[in-house]
Amino acid sequence: MSNYANLALMGNSRMQASWVRLLPGVTFFAYVLLSVYAMLHHEPWGDEIHSWNIAKGSASYLDVIQNSRYEGHPPTWYTIMWIVSKFTHHFSWVQAVHLSIATLTVFLILFYSPLPLVSRLLIPFGYYFAFEFSILARNYAIGVLAAFCICLIMRRSFRYKMICYYGLLLVLANGHLFGLILAGSLHLYYLVWDYEQHKNVRRIITHLLAGAVFLLPSCYFMFPPSTGALNVNFWMDRWNASNVMITVQSPLRSITPVPAWWNEHFWNTQFLMEWQHQYRWMKYFTPLLSAGIVAAIFFILRKSRKSNLLFFSNLLVTGFISVLIFPLGCARYAGLIYIGFLAAWWLYCYEAKPVRWHKWVVNSLLVIQMTAAAVAIGADSGRPFSNFNRVGELVGKVPANEKIVVDYWGANATAAFMDKPFYCLDLKKEVFFLLWDSDMAKLMKSNYRYTEGAEYLATQGVDKFWMISTGSPDNLAEVDTRFATAWQVNLMDKIEGAIEKGGNLYLYKMSKH
Question: What does the pLDDT look like over 466-478, one tens digit per residue?
Fold first, then answer.
């Protein structure tokens, strides 16, 4: 081969290498554009603004800590929102902060992870990174960022490494219950790896105790106060045998979260599970497919016992909690299984180079994740996820000086977007935010919550009023069978069409018969 040909080949190789180096940057830019577009077309739903109402409505940070305990969630996300509320009461700023957290996570994956290049380019556009844990401003993204930061520093040596490690462990554990489980699994990986490096039992015991010190306090925040509605009886009353099947199918829901695209309320559905209602044989197929996914992950990680230990400890403990208490019936709950797999694979790639079929299997799953994201973002862009941001339209239709009340879930929308408290009919008091406390526990036991609330108003001299609710006339009649007979209930306006089932708004005019 001539020198000219050799030079041409070298030039082509350098050009190809330059393009390869550019791909992560181009991908990151595309991800930012997609995320901003999706966020601008997303209307916040009940749980997003419920947490926000607690954060901005609490007088002090100690109040935030106390109030958030009723939710069964640790305080990390509430702390971030409380800080935001000191500068603004516009929820769009919370969305911006949340999207920044998700974007930073993707930046770490693209530029600092040891994952194969094609996988790094696909991951950002999957369901969890492009929608569920980025566009929906909840308490998951901060934990995902902490988990991958732990993966990043796990095998590095630098000053103050252990301070960073345990700080990140604390953040992950105090984001969500399933974040605590993932934190414990990551720490288990660290203990085994550290033992392999140093063979020092005393050192391992020290880190074991340190892990307990940093992880276990989050349990305090997850157990509601004695006056909370989310007590043990609440969960035991809702337990049924379907928890087992939901748990068995959770790897399928987590790794292949493609929604039922034909469903008006597609969110938190999985297309294969939805087909079970039409095809009975699918009830046997989906558990087998779920088991097949788990088996494939085992074989992909089998060269690293530590990575397998990380994934399966996270999976098994999460499954145990799912069966007994908190079923993984939603994509966001099951999503931490997927994050646990990515963390295990990240650490696996430090030890071994993935073989071709491993990469093929993982990339195929990532393409499925991208399909799920395309369905979710496409639907959310075309239809309102929730109509709560339009509550001001209904308030504006009430004549001046007429009484406006809300029901329990209607209080979420009015407090968030009108930024002031409203009288809650079924709680019989004015509220700025909702708590799953003793009042909620009493409300859940009442069969005539609207009638009782209206009668109480009548004793205060109010015999006609307007109510903003998230319940349709049929919903109101189902919750309180006496209301329509004791009071004249007229539907004056409605805003429907939300993707989220509880995201519609109704305006009623009430008067005493």
Answer: 999 999 999 999 9
